[in-house]
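hiii so um. not sure if this is the right channel but i have a protein structure encoded as tokens and i wanna go backwards to a sequence. like what aa goes where. can anyone help
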């Protein structure tokens, strides 16, 4: 028995006693007023077989259903909470698989119809779930960076079937970026100095259908206009390098172990011609070096670098003599007339004659 029921019982006893005294003694005694908080009757009273107390508190402002009880709104009924009212669901809300309607039109709903999935349904394709402040965290893992507004942390897998726009960049934190459905082609920077592209099979190809590749911040000597490769530093090939087009090497080409195979022509661009003078040293500037003189002269050669191969061509009408002396190791003095050729190789300390031609 709750306190309200006890008040009514006490009032009833007093009223009966006073009525009996009035009848027996013929004196009317005033009956105290009934309790101001009446016990509910009607339909709620008819359900008393549940033995769950239902009563009103705070001057009729609060309806209380005792422990174990429930309020059932049957089909067609409505609980209408007006604007300005406050709701307190500290004990939780059980929708029993039905949808929670979020908007006035009834198009945006939240529902857990299946045991494993909660679905948020928005009324139109252009509608959005907007988190104005705060962050989204999926899973109970520990995020590596502070979530300080408009951030998302996902402990498990993020799968995007469409396009992912990463305007702020992507930080994989040393893990792999999987490129294919099978998960075999990956891009990873596990070490501080190396980023590795792993393809699943030896026959797989890293394919750039349009555009060019530029390595370094240098300025290419020719225009990169599609299918081109510019390397500012060193280009090293441990196997065969098949170059069907033009190879421009500003710092030279080194074959550390192997042969240079030229299918058609070996085109060696001639350097700018040098006018040599008698008794003065001149510096050869490239493999094919035209020379000339104002008259018959005997110049000397500035020492080159090891393994340089040069072709001297006298393009002038005056004779140029290169002596067989010192670090100029020749078969004999070269008396080069017009269009005569002298071929030399340098070991780093000597110019050694390979061949000559008297044309």
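sure thing!! here u go:
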């Amino acid at each position: 028995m709750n306190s309200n029921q006890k008040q009514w019982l006490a009032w009833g006893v007093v009223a009966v006693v006073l009525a009996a005294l009035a009848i027996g003694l013929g004196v009317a005694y005033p009956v105290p007023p009934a309790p101001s908080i009446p016990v509910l009757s009607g339909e709620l009273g008819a359900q008393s077989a549940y033995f769950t107390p239902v009563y009103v508190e705070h001057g009729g402002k609060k309806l209380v259903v005792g422990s174990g009880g429930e309020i059932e709104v049957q089909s067609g009924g409505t609980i209408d909470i007006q604007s300005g009212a406050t709701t307190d669901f500290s004990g939780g809300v059980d929708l029993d698989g039905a949808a929670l309607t979020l908007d006035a039109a009834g198009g945006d709903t939240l529902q857990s119809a299946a045991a494993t999935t909660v679905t948020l349904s928005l009324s139109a394709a252009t509608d959005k779930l907007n988190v104005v402040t705060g962050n989204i965290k999926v899973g109970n893992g520990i995020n590596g960076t502070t979530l300080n507004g408009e951030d998302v942390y996902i402990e498990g897998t993020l799968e995007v079937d469409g396009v992912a726009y990463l305007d702020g960049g992507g930080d994989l934190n040393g893990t792999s970026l999987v490129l294919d459905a099978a998960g075999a082609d990956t891009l990873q920077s596990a070490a501080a100095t190396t980023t590795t592209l792993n393809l699943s099979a030896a026959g797989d190809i890293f394919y750039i259908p349009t555009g060019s590749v530029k390595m370094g911040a240098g300025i290419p000597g020719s225009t990169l206009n599609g299918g081109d490769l510019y390397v500012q530093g060193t280009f090293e090939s441990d196997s065969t390098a098949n170059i069907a087009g033009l190879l421009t090497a500003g710092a030279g080409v080194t074959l550390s172990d192997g042969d240079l195979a030229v299918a058609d022509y070996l085109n060696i661009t001639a350097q700018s011609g040098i006018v040599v003078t008698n008794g003065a040293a001149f510096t050869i500037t490239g493999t094919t070096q035209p020379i000339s003189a104002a008259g018959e002269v005997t110049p000397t050669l500035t020492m080159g670098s090891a393994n340089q191969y040069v072709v001297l061509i006298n393009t002038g009408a005056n004779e140029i003599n290169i002596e067989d002396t010192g670090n100029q190791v020749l078969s004999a003095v070269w008396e080069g007339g017009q269009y005569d050729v002298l071929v030399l190789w340098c070991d780093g300390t000597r110019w050694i004659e390979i061949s000559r031609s008297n044309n």
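oh and Residues 208-262 form one domain.
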